[in-house]
Amino acid sequence: MTVGIKFLQHLFLLLILFQLEPRVADSNNIIRCIDEEREALLTFKESLVDESGVLSSWGPEDEKRDCCKWTGVGCSNRTGHVIKLEIQPIDFDSFPLRGTISPALLQLHRLTYLDLSLNNFSGSPIPEFIGSLTKLSYLDLSFAEFEGPIPSHLGNLSALQHLDLSLNHLFSAGNLDWLSHLSSLTYLDLGSNNLSRSTDWLQVVGNLPLLTTLYLYRCHLPPIVPLSLSNLNYSTSLQFLELSENNLTNSIYPWLFNASSNLVLLGLDSNLLRGSIPVAFKHMVSVSFLGLASNEFEGGVPDFFGNMCSLTMLNISDNKLRGHFPELIQNLSRFSSLKELYLENNRLNGFTNNSIGQMSKLRTLSLNGNSLI
């Protein structure tokens, strides 16, 4: 009896150490999908209109019973549980899926990856039950015709590392405090939704410690209130920051220049930035893509752009910048790795001949709308 108890204790310990789960396998030891999860996926399919046959491999027939082989479904090789669901149109000429998202997805208890982007959910809100898929680390619902408030229940997904809700018709009903619960986020894209009511947006995203990618373009972001900067930790993890087409003013600078040491991409096009281009930009030594177009910058084009040795794309078009073009090119060519340079619609003057040849890597140059010869 004692031997039997010790054997069971030993087996139980092994289960804990190796986190083993029951395997669902056939006689050839090949992992098959779990019955409950197959039925959940079929219920999910029934709630959709599939004009292009994206889900044609899904079915109850004997030859289709293994849901781990269905298009867009990924299973654990060890347990057979569905862990990934990636359902999109076959190509850009195909009809997207339409309909609703069935709560049958809640039966996928091990689901960590959900991508339903590029479909058409016909103006419906993002379902509340998605906030109960607490194993998710990846969620992409972008460009899928969702409407309504950005759901705060997504704050329950504490394991999320990647969240993309961009290119929908969503809006913030108030603050974005729910985002502060997603401390594992590395990628956040809320672009082309309306965040005009979220005056706390910077306080929230500025304190996400692991965030490397932040896309908030065309979000109607309100200007920063200087007092809101006092509680920020100034995380330096950000590498890709896109804030174009908003209502940001010079009040963004204190946070921006404290959080910029590792930036590779910075987009500030089409905002309300005024005055001279700040000297602090020269400290962004890692920046490769810099967009400052369509603001209200005045004065000369700063010499320091020529010292930014990582810079491959610079867009300062549609401002009120002055300068002698040959001198500008000479400054930019000092340590230049520039491949794209956009200077149109400013107040530059001078000759263009010979000077451009100093920039040997340049592939794209836009100069129209200046006073050049």
From TrEMBL:
The record's annotation in InterPro entries points to:
Leu-rich_rpt, Leu-rich_rpt_typical-subtyp, LRR_dom_sf, LRR_N_plant-typ, RLP23-like
Q: Where in the cell is it found?
A: Cell membrane
Keyword Transmembrane helix included in the entry's annotation = yes
The UniProt entry lists membrane topology as: Single-pass type I membrane protein
> Where does the secretion signal sit in this chain?
1-27
Task: Identify the GO cellular component terms for this protein.
Answer: plasma membrane
| Alphabetical list of Gene3D superfamilies matching this protein | Ribonuclease Inhibitor
Q: Where is the Leucine-rich repeat-containing N-terminal plant-type domain?
A: 35-76
Q: Give the main localization category.
A: membrane
- Any one GO molecular-function label of the UniProt entry: signaling receptor activity
User: Which UniProt keywords are present, listed alphabetically?
Assistant: Cell membrane, Glycoprotein, Leucine-rich repeat, Membrane, Receptor, Repeat, Signal, Transmembrane, Transmembrane helix
Query: What protein family does this chain belong to?
Result: Belongs to the RLP family.
- What protein does this entry describe? Leucine-rich repeat-containing N-terminal plant-type domain-containing protein
What is the species listed in this Swiss-Prot or TrEMBL entry?
Citrus sinensis (Sweet orange)
